[in-house]
Design goal:
Length: 915
């Protein structure tokens, strides 16, 4: 029998909950009181916009469209984004609009006494109890008709920042009833259409009660409407910490507080003894960072002048999810007098307006707007018909709503609440919770006993009280959000470590892009080709054959990836639709078996199409999808339980710092080593790529996309693939592309891949470029063999490298040169030597391929030659025409069950042919 699941609310939480439940095979019904999706975003002030950067506020697998150029989209753009999400994932047919849920009632279950004696949640510890069902009373908002729907499980996504406004109480004769003007809550103002709201405040003296985000936005909107003629007055009791903008400050806060190192500085619920000791020892560092930020804000902004310096710490607001962003030109409005701020602990109403404590005269005003928040706990309580469940929700006055994993009430069966607890990014937190609930309903997540859940809830509540003080009732876990998501990952049997590399794991901020892999389903049990890769393990001192290309020849940074195998995850359902396959499906190939990938999604070789597409190898039953704006086509894509050793020269360029600096000064300094500069290098490459016009170009080791963008903008090629092994380089490449409007319509795709296992079909690429990259490859010989395989007959490879080295050359790029430099004769571009190999490498059948290798460092023998070298001439190291053809009908590499899972069969070439 199919289990009925109901979702109440079609805001961000309700939509993402519906999406994941559908993916797990359920058929939920969503009840939405409004006539469209969006929830709170449909009812906001005209000036409301996203306070965080849009990249930090989006769904994992649905990025903002390229048409949205703003970093902080407004509320209309946000509603459009949510509408697009609902349409893209076919959620609309499951939503019943204009259906307001009056209350829900648990019927047919056991008695209250029996439920009280339960040891396991719901009596049996499963999401679906054997007897009880929820009866959902729904009123149609148009015709007011009533209906009762039944469901075995209910997901509450009604939020806590709407519906039930929090208005202070006043003594008799001192409240709004004695005021001649108009009194309303910010919720009422937000529900007005833009024209009605503008007409309401135009030419009026407006006073706003409150000091948080909505109060500041509302004050700015009133000041824009009335200017200094009718100043808007803010009466605040408590000041809070605000940023001047989020785009720059958000990045700073992300690196300082939203990474694993930052969470080592705070105590976490359920932490082991050593982590607790470390948090105690490091807590002064966190306190110092907070004080530094406070002083910077007070130095940069005139907070003291306008009475906006909070009496509490910056860390307090961070832990309580109370940080905000000042509206645009807010201090200009304060300076000109269109906004006035008054600090007061108490006030009362009078006929003319407000009597403020400490002032002799009343503040005359026409409209008073309370921006004093909402009663979120009572809103959730009121949706339950049962008084028992209502008491379970509210509990003691000194307690927040007790939810295990911030979703499950230990004493309320067959129900989950999503969107109640706050985090640094609520849309991301809701997505993680929705994924957890979907796994829970599918039987992949188990919950402990009721007693253990209540103990866990108490641990989290005590921790929030410790850091949030009186504001712990907001139920915010921003200061240890990674720790929280770690618990969800462990519950879902995924490894919580989502980064690549020790330093990235420790110091890079965490966000939704790091968890994209949780939604991928792959086969590890059914594919014999994949099983060895899952077991790929390298000790720090590997005992490998001296001929093995896995054996390090120099000291290496041993980077251990311990990423959760999506253990024994079932294979994705076979793709049944072929209608949206495109030509690229024949170009992109599985990096394991080199079979063409089957594509599902939007056609096209561009960022948007690739990001929204899924790829699958029919032979391996392995799926590949985009992560963080790039398509991951490495052999370990999506796998989270493996270790690897990469040379230092490779790991260097995976560093976030080097990736950020690469195009901001690092690459330009190559001129000091003989490179003529990016423009001249690009021009020279274009000359040699003349025969590849109109074809597909792959920019291997593209870095931040310096040359990839140039190739794409030239319009010379039908498509450009920017390919790199470094995740951080690809992120930088994406950022540069998005900032260049001329690239918005070009066919450029970002792909993460290993140069030694290029994910392209044999003979499918017309041109390959590798700028200043060969010396960074772990195995240049294997890489060259791969490039040979993927190039068409007549294809061209152009590469550049620091081929020669001196005593000052960094040690980590020497191994490749030591092997190659003595076999290569330096040639001037004017000589253009052409040589043919005596033996055929494994690769394409028939035809020739031209290899051109440039070096920025010519042979130097004297000081005079050093001076001459400053002319920055560029030199050709090799210009080789290669005959290619299979010797045994096999590609250069095939996976085997021997050794460590993959072996290589190197090219058989006559060494003398390379001299």
């Amino acid at each position: 029998m199919e289990r009925r699941v109901a979702i109440i609310g079609a805001g961000t939480s309700g939509l993402v909950a519906c999406k994941y439940l559908l993916e797990f095979g359920f058929h939920p019904t969503v009840f939405e009181a409004d006539d469209g999706v969006g929830g709170l975003w449909r009812h906001t002030m005209d000036s409301t916009k996203l306070q965080s950067n849009k990249q930090a506020y989006q769904f994992m697998d649905f990025p903002w469209p390229s048409s949205v150029k703003e970093d902080n989209p407004n509320h209309n753009q946000m509603v459009d984004y949510l509408n697009s999400y609902a349409q893209h994932f076919s959620l609309i047919p499951h939503i019943r609009f204009n259906s307001k849920v009056i209350h829900i009632d648990y019927v047919g279950g056991e008695s209250a006494e029996q439920m009280k004696s339960w040891e396991l949640w719901g009596g049996n510890g499963t999401p679906f109890a054997s007897k009880g069902t929820w009866h959902i009373s729904v009123q149609h908002t148009k015709n007011l008709s009533l209906e009762v729907h039944k469901a075995e499980f209910v997901v509450l996504c009604i939020g806590k920042y709407s519906g039930l406004p929090n208005i202070p109480e006043f003594p008799q004769g001192q409240g709004p009833e004695v005021f001649n003007g108009k009194v309303m809550h910010s919720m009422d103002y937000s529900n007005l259409d833009n024209d009605t709201a503008a007409e309401l405040i135009k030419g009026k003296r407006v006073t706003i009660i409150g000091s948080q985000k909505s109060a500041m936005d509302l004050a700015a909107e009133c000041a824009n409407a009335n200017g200094v003629m009718h100043p808007c007055t803010i009466i605040q009791r408590t000041a809070y910490w605000f940023f001047p903008d989020f785009n720059s400050w958000g990045l700073i806060v992300g690196f300082l507080f939203f990474n694993r190192f930052a969470e080592l500085l705070v105590h976490k619920p359920g932490e082991p003894f050593l982590l607790g000791l470390l948090a105690t020892l490091l807590s002064p560092l966190r306190w110092g960072i907070g004080k530094v930020l406070e002083n910077i804000l007070k130095w940069k902004l005139p907070l003291k002048k306008y009475g906006l310096v909070p009496s509490h710490s910056f860390l307090h607001d961070l832990s309580s999810c109370l940080l905000g962003v000042f509206p645009d030109n807010f201090f200009d409005k304060l300076n000109e007098g269109s906004i006035v701020i008054k600090n007061s602990q108490s006030f009362s109403f009078c006929r003319e307006g407000l009597m403020i404590a400490g002032e002799a005269k009343p503040l005359e005003t026409d409209i008073v707007i309370f921006a004093t928040g909402f009663k979120g706990d009572e809103k959730i309580k009121n949706i339950f018909k049962s008084p028992i469940f209502q008491n379970h929700i509210l509990g003691p006055a000194t307690s927040t709503v007790p939810l295990y994993r911030h979703m499950i009430h230990p004493r309320i069966p067959q129900l989950a609440i999503i969107g109640y607890a706050d985090s640094a990014s609520n849309i991301f937190a809701s997505e993680m919770k929705s994924l957890w609930v979907a796994n829970f309903l599918d039987g992949k997540v188990e919950v402990p006993s009721i007693r253990e859940m209540e103990k866990e809830v108490k641990l989290w509540e005590d921790n929030m009280k410790r850091y949030e003080g009186t504001y712990f009732l907001k139920s915010c876990f921003a200061h240890f959000s990674i720790w929280y998501h770690d618990q969800l990952c462990k519950d879902m049997k995924h490894n919580p470590k989502r980064k690549n590399g020790f330093f990235a794991e420790l110091f890079e901020p965490y966000g939704q892009a790091d968890y994209v892999g949780l939604t991928l389903a792959m086969s590890v049990a059914t594919s014999p080709l994949l099983r060895p890769l899952h077991q790929l393990q390298f000790p720090k001192c590997p005992r490998l054959s001296s001929k093995s290309h896995f054996r390090p020849r120099r000291f290496h940074f041993l980077t251990k990836r311990t990423i959760s195998a999506i253990s024994a995850v079932a294979a994705e359902p076979e793709l049944r639709t072929q209608q949206d396959q495109s030509v690229e499906a024949d170009v992109l190939a599985c990096p394991i078996c080199y079979e063409p990938l089957i594509r599902k999604g939007s056609p096209g070789l561009n960022l948007s199409a690739i990001y929204r597409s899924g790829f699958m190898c029919k032979r391996c039953k392995k799926s590949y999808s985009s992560k963080d704006r790039y398509l991951d086509l490495t052999v370990t894509a999506g796998l989270k339980d493996y270790t690897e050793i990469q040379p230092a020269r490779t790991e260097l360029f995976r560093s976030p710092l080097v990736s950020f600096l690469y195009e901001r000064g690092w690459r330009q300094n190559f001129r000091q080593s003989g490179f003529p500069g990016p423009d001249e290098e690009f021009k020279m490459a274009q000359e040699y790529f003349e025969s590849a016009k109109g074809g597909l170009l792959v920019d291997v080791s593209c870095g931040s996309g310096l040359f990839s963008r140039k190739f794409a903008k030239s319009g010379t090629y039908s498509g450009v693939v920017a390919l790199d092994f470094s995740e951080n380089m690809l992120r930088q490449c994406y950022d540069f592309i998005k900032k260049d409007d001329t690239l918005s319509t070009t066919n450029i795709a970002l792909v993460r891949a290993d140069v030694s296992r290029l994910p392209f079909a044999s003979g499918s690429v017309d041109a390959v470029h590798a700028g200043a990259a060969l010396h960074c490859w772990p195995s240049p010989s294997n890489a060259v063999a791969e490039i040979t395989r993927i190039l068409r007959s007549g294809g061209v490879f152009v590469g550049s490298t620091f081929l020669r080295y001196s005593s000052s050359t960094p040690w980590f790029i020497r191994p490749f040169r030591e092997k190659i430099v003595n076999k290569t004769e330096m040639k001037s571009p004017k000589e253009k030597p052409t040589k043919k190999l005596k033996s055929s490498p494994r690769g394409l059948c028939g035809g020739t391929i031209t290899f051109l290798l440039f070096t920025g460092v010519p042979r130097i023998c004297s000081h005079q030659q050093v001076d001459d070298h400053r002319k920055r001439e560029y030199h050709t190291a090799e210009h080789i025409t290669i005959k290619v053809g299979y010797t045994d009908g096999a590609p250069p590499w095939t996976p085997t069950n021997k050794g460590h899972g993959i072996t290589s069969r190197p090219l058989k070439r006559d060494p003398e042919s390379l001299t």
